[in-house]
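Reviewer comment 2.1 asked that we show a complete input and output for one of the modelled complexes. We chose the shikimate-3-phosphate case, as it is the one discussed in the main text.
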Amino acid sequence: MDISIQNDSTHSPIFLVGFMGSGKTHWGRQWAAVLHRKFIDVDELIETQEQLSVTEIFSSKGEAWFREKEALVLRSVIDKNDLLVSCGGGLPCFHDNMNFMNSTGTTIYLQASPRFLLHNILKEPQARPLLKNMNEAEMLFFIETKLNERNPCYKQATFILNAEDLTGDSIKIIPCTKDY
Ligand code: S3P
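Response of the prediction step:
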């Protein structure tokens, strides 16, 4: 009998981390299908539980409340095997979440330049409460500043992939997916 299966990195969670607009949800969905894993988007799970959008949560309950909720939801999902979890852009940088994810699974940072991130964010700017009421130049400045601040945290990920160069098969180069 194999009792080590719970800690086998082939089955432990994969977490996608990175800035808004890096493609975590887009690629997460596709890669979960490729790997036969269940896909979880932490923001979507929070929105379902609260019956409010992330933007509404930020304005009605505030960012600190949202960060607590993220940490709770993150810890509540990882008791299942074969998950691929897409994390909100700020999640790794609050409540020791990066250490938690690194100790329970494999983290992958989708790294991208500020201009690439801005281009993607502009497709759906209203979904990003942190960028509310900013013009393009202000958004770019915010992204550059926040990315510099968050990079030391993101770079603690087990693997770093270039988000500007991803395909449906990019996930296969990550060692814990070798059996798929
Ligand atoms: C945030 C990113 C968002 C969402 C919230 C806060 C951030 O997720 O969690 O708006 O702090 O960077 P995405 O990275 O999926 O846009």
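Residues 136-154 form the longest helix (19 residues). We note this here for comparison with the apo prediction described in Section 3.2.
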